[in-house]
Amino acid sequence: MGPKSDEAWVRALLAEHQGRLMRYAWRLTRNADTAHDVVQETFLRLCRQRPADVAGHELAWLYRVCRQRALDVCRKERRMSVLSRETAENRPSPAPPPESAIENAEGGAQLAQLVARLDPQQQEVVRLKFTEGLKYREIADVLGLSTSHVGVLIHTALKQLRSQLATDLANTAGD
Amino acid sequence: MPCDTNDPRLTAYALGEWDEPDRSEIEQHVAGCAVCRQEVERLRELAATLSRELAKEPLPMADLRPVQLPSRKPRRMVFRGLAAAACVLILGSVGFVISKHAREPDRIVRPKTLEWYDPEAELGKSYAATDPDNPWLPRGSVVITGKYSGNQMFDFAEIPHADSAPSTHLPATPPPGPSPEMIAKSLRQRNEWLQRFGGKQQSGGAPMARPQAPPASPGAQPTRVDGSQPITINGGTVSLPNQGAGPAPLAPASQPNAGPGLAPSDLKTETLTLSGTGPQPGASSPPAAVAAGVETFTGRVPADTQRMGGGMGGMGGGGGMGGGMAGMAPTAKDWERLTMSRAKLRPIQPGAVLEKEFNTEAFDRVVDNPFLDVLKNPLSTFSIDVDTASYSIVRRFLMQGNSLPPKDTVRIEELVNYFTYDYAPPKDDAPFAAHIEAADCPWQREHRLVRIGLKGRVIADDDRPASNLVFLLDVSGSMQPANKVPLVQQAMSMLVRKLGSRDRVAIAVYAGASGLVLPSTSCEQQETILAALDRLQAGGSTNGGQGIQLAYQVAKQNFVRGGTNRVILCTDGDFNVGITNRGDLTRLIEKEAAGGVFLTVLGFGMGNLKDATLEQLADKGNGNYGYIDSPAEARKLLVEQLGGTLVTIAKDVKIQVEFNPAHAASYRLIGYENRILRKEDFNDDKKDAGEIGAGHTVTALYEVVPPGQPNGTAAVDPLKYQQPPKPSKPAAAASRELLTLKLRYKQPEGQTSTLIEHPFTDDGEKWSASSRDFRFAAAVAAFGMVLRGSPYKGHATLDSVLEWAAEGKGPDRQGYRSEFFTLLDRAKSLLPADRPK
ipTM of the predicted structure? Predict the structure, then answer.
């Protein structure tokens, strides 16, 4: 494969997936600069790949590298930083949440809260599936798990979400 | 298949994960089984809700700018969905590093040893990088000379273009850059493009650029066309490509000096994250090609309009370089808090995932030193600290962030040491003199406040030993805002102007790859150095580790015996690529410090997240750490205190105070929480401690509880097997001495320490009789305690701090103390419930 087509290939993937990767990286790092660096790094790494080696699982490859970079950064920063948590918790919120946002949060967003209560691996799988829209096979590739393991994780996560949702609804109704 | 609704396969089916032929099998079953059909429907409904709800999570679109790859047609890189936020940022902006074989000006010399080459990589592949229509881009074609390796991002090498004139010496003046016509043309293209995509700034403020603006019309905007200067377009900066002059390449040394932790195997962590197709440097030794020689590559290809958006942080808007800049990254953070409070939605916490893998992280929390009982702890031992970064950080929060600084940013000793005090310098040959003063403790009048002041020998600039400095500058993407790289340039230029003909400066940068922008150059050629500084641009991602190796290598090559050999690292601490292991990094730094190359770390424009890292790096490198948030701070640190910043006059300076139980029941060291040593460490010359620079002052404060007062220490059950120690020695009671101060230090190049002892007798001086400096230092310490909400702040309030500081202000020739009052005012407006404890 000629170099020109390699470049075109990278650019096509960049155009197609940059947005979602940026959002994904942001969700992992919660920092726009870091997300930017992570995604840039991911694509620069892609430039190093032979298209043939990545062909067929480009998306999973991108997610995997992106995730790994993001986690590297987060790990380092957590180890290095004094303040991230303190800062986030102690500094006042700039504005109170608008009423409408609170109302929105009542209904379905309850679900998002419940997701946040899942164990970290389940959360991650659920997000890769339902936020990022990856297939089981791709998720397996990103996380280095087997496809059936991913299937089980999603299955149990959905069960758990459903039963908690039911419990919560029952509690609310009981109030 | 069994009819079990609790089957992952059914879930997979519901989510559309099954492919033929298995799919039809399940499909058939579901069609005929009402229970499974219902289950599938419920699962699908849940999945749909889940996708919908998770998608609602808002994103800081304005902050997510697109990444840039090396491009000859940047306009292609608009990425969908974020085009509006982003389009302005792209044109001509290429944050990467390419290599040049040609001896073209402005190249960076990079020893190949910093990379892992895969000889079978994409060698020889060539990418055209020439775009005759685009003067922003370098000419020549790009050939990949190395495959991706764990530690580096991008490695294009540029083949010499036929008409690129090689230059092998340092030109006296930069050659001309692109012609005005080219610039005009390029600006036209750019503006057309801006128009097409309608650049719109996201976070308020002025528009980033006005596309209609007549490009390059000399009357309308300042346009400097000298090949290396930024062109200003309606407030934004666009820089020209690096076509200016550059120095000759530096001859390569041997292997870069890899510290123990930087051995190849440590690169594994990086590389293993790649797919199996990547090289596996961890498993191999450096290929032969690695040691081959030097390769040169340009700094950056051009121009980034990103600067235009640099000020859109949305906070403060204070003037000058640091005003309201994105260094505190308020948008994303504030947004995050907003989201979290709004929906109580917690993000995936990478840390939670990681806790299984890494359990070594520690938050460097600062917990106020407690009162210690003199009988049980007669010795107080700590390392001196001349760092002052905390003060700048506090100032930044107060003045620019308009918020109180988070508790752990307030390190009281750094606040106190930010100010210089009028201690007499040593009269004898000792590197420093010690002064002790005691008076009533203003926030707890029954207690005594003891101030220990050290003053380093003063060395006039002219008497300074020759210095060999290597600036190691972070030019990664996160350094783009105006309070970062531009401020670095400004700060370093100030320093260069202060240096003399005996001094040498080299400039190394690091981003995705690291490289030498300027080999060690005598300060006689000040203009060359300043021009090199001027050309720096931010872009790419950070690899602090490699940059440090390179900088140390250059420093060692130009080692000045008996002089100052120092790497000056300027960064926001975003070491996000490369050596991941901080331990490895600190080991390298310690090793180099032992070899005589010290490290100064200057923090720039950060949201202080990496503060602890930077401080630690500086400590390990026998250096100091400062935080530069404004040109004024740069002046203080680099111009006015040049001697102290550059010349270490004593190292491993430790303080041990022995209190006399006859006159002190308990004591508390104010600040220095992360500098406490074990009492045994005092006499252990292997234990590293702080350095003191020429003319530096170091101040430490103790709050001492006299006998007969409640001593504030935690009660411990009486011992069962021993008698509590008693101050039975007649010496203790007979002595009027309150304490004995013991100091240990080493000469900068020495290995064994020297001991100095100063007994001190407290004559019961009243606050009203204390010196001005004493009062001012007490006021600053009290300010820190109030900001920290310290349990030991006693009666201190911001009002009383103001009063004490006013009493102690004195002539304040340099104006630093006056600024303290501004901070106090701001803190008062932010801390309404400020009452004495």
Answer: 0.80
Residues B97-124: pLDDT tens digits?
Answer: 333 333 333 333 333 222 222 333 333 3
Best mutation site among B144, B152, B342, B627 for testing chain A: the one with the most A CBs within 10 Å?
B342
> What CATH number should be reported for the domain holding residue A29?
1.10.1740
Among A74, A91, A108, the domain-final residue is: A91
A85 and A103, same domain (yes or no): no
Q: Which of B266-280, B430-444, B606-620, B742-756 has the lowest mean pLDDT?
A: B266-280
Tell me: the pLDDT tens digits for B362-409? 235 678 889 998 988 899 999 987 777 788 888 888 887 778 888 888
Tokens at A54, concatenated: 């990545």
> Across the interface, do A87 and B540 touch by the CB < 8 Å criterion?
no
The token pair at B412 is: 């009281």
Q: Does residue A103 share a domain with residue A86?
A: no
Same domain for A17 and A78, yes or no, is yes
Reduced to 3 states (helix: H, G, I; strand: E, B; else coil), residue B402 is coil
pLDDT at B759: 93
Name the residue of chain A whose CA is nearest to B83's CA. A19
Q: Examine the domain organization and report whether A2 and A73 are in the same domain.
A: yes
For A131, the domain range is 97-175
Output the 3-class SS for chain A. Answer: CCHHHHHHHHHHHHHHHHHHHHHHHHHHHCCHHHHHHHHHHHHHHHHCCCHHHHCCCHHHHHHHHHHHHHHHHHHHHHHHCCCHHHHHHHCCCCCCCCHHHHHHHHCCHHHHHHHHHCCHHHHHHHHHHHHCCCCHHHHHHHHCCCHHHHHHHHHHHHHHHHHHHHHHHHHHHHC
Instruction: Using alpha carbons, select from B55, B73, B50 the residue that is nearest to residue B133.
Output: B73
Domain count across chain A: 2
Given A46, A71, A91, which residue is the final one in a domain?
Answer: A91
Together in a domain, A124 and A50: no
Assess whether pLDDT exceeds 80 at residue B423.
Answer: yes
Beta bridge partners of B236: B233
H runs (alpha helix) in B502-543: 526-534
Which residue in the set A14, A104, A127 is minimally distant from B54, CB to CB? A127
Instruction: Check if A162 contacts B (Cβ < 8 Å).
Output: yes
For residues A71 and A156, state if they share a domain: no
The answer to whether the CB atoms of A95 and B338 lie below 8 A apart is yes
Interface touch B350/A75, C-beta < 8 Å: yes
CATH of the domain at A111: 1.10.10.10
> Mean pLDDT across chain B, nearest whole number?
65
The better pLDDT of the pair B53, B698 is held by: B698
Residue B777 pLDDT > 90 = yes
Chain B residues within an 8 Å CB radius of A65: 273-275
Separation between Cα atoms, residue A95 and residue A93, nearest integer Å: 6
Residue B764 reports pLDDT greater than 80: yes
* pLDDT digit string, tens, across residues B566-591: 888 887 765 543 444 667 777 888 88
A41–B contact, CB cutoff 8 A: yes
CB contact under 8 A, B406 and A44: no
Task: Answer yes or no: do A126 and A78 share one domain.
Answer: no
A141 touches chain B (CB under 8 A): no
A7 and A46 both lie in a single domain: yes
Contact of A23 with chain B, judged by CB distance below 8 Å, is answered with: yes
* CB-closest option in B144, B338, B408 to A94: B338
CB pairs under 8 A between A and B: 322
Mean pLDDT on B817-828: 90
Residue in chain B closest to A84 (alpha carbons) equals B609
